[in-house]
């Protein structure tokens, strides 16, 4: 079967609406038709200073949330990145074929490091996209079998990192012989960039959005409803999709259509014609609550049995590790590392 692979950082106590619509929902849909690998990327999370207890907690919450939205450990491989050591190992090799300038052109790095200043920016943040390339390429389907696919469902903000991954895969193949399948970014346009509720021209973001601008999947219903009612809308009062001039309303329409069980943006424009923003937001809040409430409940149940959660992740790491170690053996050989013989 063709493969699908993706990852999410455990950098907050919950995923937000952008993560859910931009990525995680596609993960669930794809687990049936693909050989699926999904991971919580805790090694990426430590590229900025992180409290160990918080990281441990968030990693488990992230895993529980992924199960709660519908990932099924029988149908996909769910694991924690740091439990499969080949990720770090391949990242080193790929780092050695990445240009310094090439890595420096990553816009996410430029934005984040500009905000932090160079002394508090870690080298890990700089090489972050290389680790991401390793995450992906370790799960390359056998290139010799031919015609195999490796799909990576992500939001728009990861497009440049995917491009770099493709470049590195091609470069490695060219220098060392066919090894990696060239992965494809899977970015469905409708929900590729969910924006901040208070600043509807920039993406909703764990690190950059204000609490008022972001909706967490695990948030309590009261605050969730309030945030939607207070979302920035635009001058005028028509519920119309016009991303250029009505960024706020257009973002809300996107969210509504994505969660509304088949209703289209056109349908919604018609339904709210002449009604103003109030009723529209009220109904949208209900749709969001109806989606997230059951997820919140299931997450709490899953977190109540930590031993079972640990077992699921251990099985996931075992399955992921089996694939990763085969790829890494090939890579070591291609690069010219001497295989370890017997000690006696
Ligand atoms: P992360 O943890 O920032 O986000 C997880 C996923 O959510 C998407 N996303 C959004 N989609 C739409 N609208 C938004 N406002 C929005 N905000 C976030 C992201 O695009 C992402 O798909 N580098 C990755 C994690 C990663 C990874 C990988 C992904 C590490 N290794 C290998 C794929 C394959 C990241 O920081 O995602």
Automatic annotation (TrEMBL):
Gene3D superfamilies: HUPs (3.40.50.620), Tyrosyl-Transfer RNA Synthetase (1.10.240.10). It is found in: Cytoplasm. Pfam families: tRNA-synt_1b. Homodimer. One of its GO terms (cellular component) is cytosol. The lineage of its organism: Bacteria, Bacillati, Actinomycetota, Actinomycetes, Streptosporangiales. It catalyses: tRNA(Trp) + L-tryptophan + ATP = L-tryptophyl-tRNA(Trp) + AMP + diphosphate + H(+). Its EC number is 6.1.1.2. Keywords: Aminoacyl-tRNA synthetase, ATP-binding, Cytoplasm, Ligase, Nucleotide-binding, Protein biosynthesis. Belongs to the class-I aminoacyl-tRNA synthetase family. GO terms for biological process: tryptophanyl-tRNA aminoacylation. The keyword Nucleotide-binding applies. Its main location: cytoplasm. ATP binds at residues 9-11, 18-19, 155-157, 194, 203-207. Catalyzes the attachment of tryptophan to tRNA(Trp). The gene is trpS. It comes from the Bacteria. GO terms for molecular function: ATP binding; tryptophan-tRNA ligase activity. HAMAP family: Trp_tRNA_synth_B. This is Tryptophan--tRNA ligase. L-tryptophan binds at residue 135. A motif ('KMSKS' region) lies at residues 203-207.
């Amino acid at each position: 079967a063709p493969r699908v692979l993706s990852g999410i950082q455990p950098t907050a106590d919950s995923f937000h609406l952008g993560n859910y619509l931009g990525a995680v929902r596609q993960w669930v849909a794809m687990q049936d038709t693909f050989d699926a690998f999904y991971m919580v990327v805790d090694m990426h999370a430590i590229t900025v200073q992180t409290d160990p207890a918080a990281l441990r907690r968030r990693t488990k919450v992230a895993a529980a949330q992924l199960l709660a939205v519908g990932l099924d450990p029988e149908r996909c491989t769910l694991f924690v990145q740091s439990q499969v050591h080949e990720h770090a190992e391949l990242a080193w090799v790929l780092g050695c074929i990445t240009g310094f300038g090439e890595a420096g052109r990553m816009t996410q790095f430029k934005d984040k490091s500009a905000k932090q200043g160079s002394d508090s920016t870690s080298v890990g943040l700089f090489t972050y996209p290389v680790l991401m390339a390793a995450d992906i390429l370790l799960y390359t389907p056998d290139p010799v079998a031919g015609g195999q696919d490796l799909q990576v469902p992500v939001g728009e903000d990861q497009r440049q990192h995917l491009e770099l991954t493709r470049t590195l895969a091609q470069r490695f193949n060219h220098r060392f012989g066919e090894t990696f399948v060239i992965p494809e970014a899977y970015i469905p346009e409708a929900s590729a960039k969910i924006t901040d509720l208070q600043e509807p021209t920039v993406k909703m973001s764990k690190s950059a959005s204000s609490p008022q601008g972001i909706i967490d999947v695990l948030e309590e219903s009261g605050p969730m409803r309030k945030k939607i009612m207070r979302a920035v809308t635009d001058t005028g009062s028509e519920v119309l999709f016009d991303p250029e001039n009505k960024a706020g309303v257009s973002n809300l329409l996107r969210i509504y259509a994505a969660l509304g069980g088949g209703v289209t943006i056109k349908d919604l424009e018609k339904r709210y014609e002449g009604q103003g923003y109030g009723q529209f937001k009220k109904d949208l809040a209900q749709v969001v609550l109806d989606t997230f409430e059951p997820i919140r409940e299931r997450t709490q149940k899953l977190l109540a049995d930590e031993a079972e959660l640990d077992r699921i992740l251990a099985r996931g790491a075992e399955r992921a590790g089996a694939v990763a170690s085969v790829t890494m053996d090939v890579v070591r050989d291609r690069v010219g590392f001497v295989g370890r013989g017997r000690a006696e």
